[in-house]
């Protein structure tokens, strides 16, 4: 069963319009979440605001939002003012331009959403827009209000649908040169490069999403299941110390030993 869409509106290209629905492509619905309880009564506890200086409780109508402009100096803003800044959704994704599909680096991609036609009437228009982007190897750029903010979005054809990526704002992406410019430009030795290529070939395999499992989440499920059956709390094991690595002076020796280690499991499987 497909998840319910969280946004419905229209996809527009010039005079062509079709009804669409959108749903986030990722989610954390399956993650374990805990409630904070009173240990003695098992009742849930509530959070309350307390003045950091006086220690006195502050009621909801006494809460304000402030932007720090100096030490202990704030610009106070009321909820009504913040609501006025937020934008109401126009419910229309109006494609403004198209760019080559490979021209937007991955670092600009923020959150993915699945976009699909919302009724039979709009299926033809949706399919034509999607197929045209695929044939021209382009992606569409538009603006839409999501989460009360206007976002630049990228529309990427994928299968029979479209993936809508919200794009990061310009001030959110740090220039890579700030971090990589200090790395010396040294050409690797040919022999070293050949050995690393062999090491890569030995470990190369198809990507399998099933390998992307959260071991902490799995252990939490096991722990909760065990405690639900009345089993006693297990003693927390001490973390294993990392084995001390060799002080490798010669990278060629390290690469040769690495390849030998890779070859041993393969030999045992025969």
Provide a descriptive summary of the structure in words:
With 270 residues, the chain is an alpha+beta fold. It contains six helices and nine strands. Strands 1-2-6-9-8-7-5 form a seven-stranded mixed barrel. A two-stranded antiparallel ribbon has the order 3-4. A hairpin with a 2-residue loop joins strand 1 and strand 2. Helix 4 packs parallel to helix 6.
| Average pLDDT number | 85
Structural class computed from helices and strand pairing: alpha+beta
What's the architecture of the domain at 98-173, going by CATH?
Beta Barrel
Strand content: 25-35%
Shape: extended
| Strand tally | 9
Following the backbone from N to C, one meets helices and strands in this order, namely EEEEHEEHEEEHHHH
The first-to-last residue Cα distance is: 44 Å
Annotated CATH topology of the domain at 98-173: Ku70, Chain: A, Domain 2
* Rg result: 27 Å
Biggest pleated sheet? 7 strands, mixed, barrel
Q: Give the class-level CATH name of the domain at 98-173.
A: Mainly Beta
Which stretches are low in confidence, meaning pLDDT under 50 for 5 or more residues running?
none
Sheet with the most strands: spatial strand order: 1-2-6-9-8-7-5
Helix share of residues? 25-40%
Give me the number of helical elements.
6
């Amino acid at each position: 069963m497909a998840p319910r869409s969280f946004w419905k509106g229209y996809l527009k290209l010039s005079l062509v319009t079709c009804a669409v629905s959108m749903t986030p492509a990722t989610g954390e619905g399956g993650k374990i979440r805990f409630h904070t309880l009173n240990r003695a009564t098992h009742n849930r506890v509530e959070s309350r605001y307390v003045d950091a200086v006086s220690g006195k409780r502050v009621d909801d109508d006494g809460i304000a939002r402030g932007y720090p402009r100096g030490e202990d100096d704030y610009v106070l803003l009321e909820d009504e003012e913040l609501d006025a800044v937020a934008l109401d959704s126009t419910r229309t994704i109006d494609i403004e331009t198209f760019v080559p599909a490979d021209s937007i680096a991955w670092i600009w991609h923020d959150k993915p959403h699945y976009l699909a036609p919302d009724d039979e009437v709009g299926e033809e228009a949706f399919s034509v827009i999607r197929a045209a982007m695929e044939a021209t190897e382009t992606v569409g750029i538009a603006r839409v209000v999501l989460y009360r903010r206007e976002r630049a979005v990228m529309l990427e054809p994928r299968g029979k649908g479209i993936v809508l990526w919200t794009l990061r704002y310009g001030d959110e992406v740090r220039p890579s040169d700030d971090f990589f410019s200090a790395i010396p430009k040294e050409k690797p030795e040919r022999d070293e490069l050949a050995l690393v290529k062999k090491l890569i070939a030995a470990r190369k395999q198809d990507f399998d999403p099933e390998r992307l499992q959260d071991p902490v989440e799995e252990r939490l499920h096991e722990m909760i299941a065990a405690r639900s059956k009345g089993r006693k709390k297990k003693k927390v094991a001490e973390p294993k110390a990392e084995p001390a690595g060799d002080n490798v002076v010669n990278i060629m020796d390290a690469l040769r030993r690495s390849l030998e280690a890779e070859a041993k499991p393969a030999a045992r499987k025969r």
